[in-house]
Specification:
The protein is α+β, with helices and mostly antiparallel strands. The protein has 12 helices and 5 strands. It has a 5-stranded mixed β-sheet with strand order 1-2-3-5-4. Helix 11 links the parallel strand 1 and strand 2. The chain is rod-shaped and about 155 Å long. It starts with a helix and ends in a 6-residue tail after the last strand.
């Protein structure tokens, strides 16, 4: 594509407009010369000044290519062209076609302080042409000249004011667009950084989850299987020293019961290593099944509710909330002696909350002793799970008034 094809219409007019108006003025003056009539000195002056106008336009085009915009050279060229057009219009009013160029080039070729003087001189030339040519003959033509000049200057002032307002709006609009572009760029960078941090958080959560599951399994083994095996050994030692068959049979039955219980605990611990319930279902369905099965197993009335519009959550978020629910239900069956438990999953904009409430015995959260090697996984484990994915866990309880466990985590959708 050539440079001419790439130029805007305004830039093209700046280059070719003066030439077109000069040619129009010369043709109009030549055709009207016999009718005015145009005297011999006017013809000689026109023959000299028209080539000067051609040379001026050629030189001016070269100057603007090197230094676009107002310049000292441009000021001299503007007023020199005005002088040429004024004398040509004196010789023949139809040369005013060329003088019009002063109107639309003043704002771009002159400094701000010289724009109005340049426009005034052009208006003088145009007013003289519009009353029939220079000089005005008689008082009526002089009065007409000043009236026409006033009209020209009024129109110039109005159009100049509109042009300045339009230019100011264009500057404001350009600044606004540039600011919006900078804001959008900063926003996109923030979104990219947020996405990277989010991915890093999930990776860290997954790595921390592995370590957390190992600690949990170690606690499960210590709290259930190891203690069960210790009990079995103790019962078998009693059997070996039993004085009669009845006593031995009693302790063997106890050892058998402990073995069955330990086997069940081992299976439960292995099952809890991965949220199998989430393999085929989303979190709401998995929680509903978990609550229902827990209620059937413990003979405690259990209800599950979902509020808000359910979303398909990221695996880490769903697994965390399911583990918290399982741990809270386990605590309720072991310690609370509750007759009713309610589990509520709430989707609230950019957060998900899980609430587990029971009407059990309750406890004083401030009086809960720290977990020891012999203690359970319990509340610290649930809180650690929630905090690992930038969430939080709160516990409200009072002796004799039940317990409420509330987990609040960010809503992170599954992108798959």
């Amino acid at each position: 594509m050539t440079n001419a094809a790439q130029q805007s219409p305004r830039a093209s007019f700046d280059i070719w407009g003066p030439w077109a108006l000069l040619v129009t003025g010369v043709v109009a003056a030549a055709l009207s010369a016999p009718l005015i009539p145009m005297d011999r000195p006017g013809t000689v002056v026109s023959a000299v000044l028209v080539p000067m106008g051609v040379v001026l336009q050629l030189y001016w085009g070269r100057v603007k290519r090197k230094r676009p915009g107002p310049s000292r050279t441009g000021v001299w060229l503007y007023f020199l062209r005005w002088a040429i057009t004024f004398v040509l219009t004196w010789a023949n009013p139809f040369f005013a076609f060329y003088a019009v160029t002063g109107y639309y080039t003043a704002a771009r070729e002159l400094p701000r302080r010289l724009v109005m003087p340049g426009l005034f001189l052009t208006a003088v030339t145009m007013a003289g042409s519009e009353i029939g040519g220079w000089p005005p003959h008689g008082l009526i033509l002089w009065i007409g000249f000043f009236l026409v000049l006033a009209v020209n200057m009024g129109m110039v002032s109005v159009f100049t004011r509109y042009a300045e307002q339009e230019q100011a709006r264009a500057v404001v609009q350009a600044d606004t667009i540039a600011e919006l572009e900078r804001t959008n760029t900063a926003l996109q960078q923030a979104l990219d950084e947020n996405a990277a941090l989010h991915a890093q958080l999930l990776v860290q959560a997954r790595e921390a989850g592995v370590a957390d599951e190992r600690r949990r399994l170690a606690a499960e083994i210590h709290d259930t299987i190891a203690q069960g095996l210790t009990g079995i050994i103790a019962q078998l030692q009693v059997v070996s020293n039993a004085p009669d068959l009845t006593t031995a049979r009693t302790h063997l039955e106890r050892a058998s019961d402990l073995a069955r219980h330990s086997l069940g605990e081992a299976r439960r611990s292995v099952h809890n290593l991965a949220p199998v319930a989430l393999a085929a279902d989303g979190l709401p369905e998995a929680l509903k099944k978990t609550v229902t099965q827990w209620g059937q197993r413990t003979a405690i009335r259990a209800e599950f509710t979902v509020t808000g519009t359910a979303e398909h959550l990221h695996d880490e978020v769903a697994a965390t909330l399911l583990r918290i629910a399982q741990e809270a239900l386990s605590n309720a069956s072991r310690h609370a002696r509750a007759s009713r438990v309610g589990v509520t999953l709430s989707f609230m904009g950019d957060e998900v909350t899980l609430d587990i409430r029971d009407d059990g015995t309750g406890f004083d959260p401030a009086a809960v002793p720290p977990r020891t090697r012999a203690g359970g996984f319990g509340l610290d484990g649930m809180r650690a799970r929630a905090e690992r994915i930038a969430g939080s866990l709160t516990i409200e309880s009072e002796p004799g008034h039940g317990t409420a466990v509330s987990a609040r985590v960010p809503l992170v959708r599954d992108d798959r």
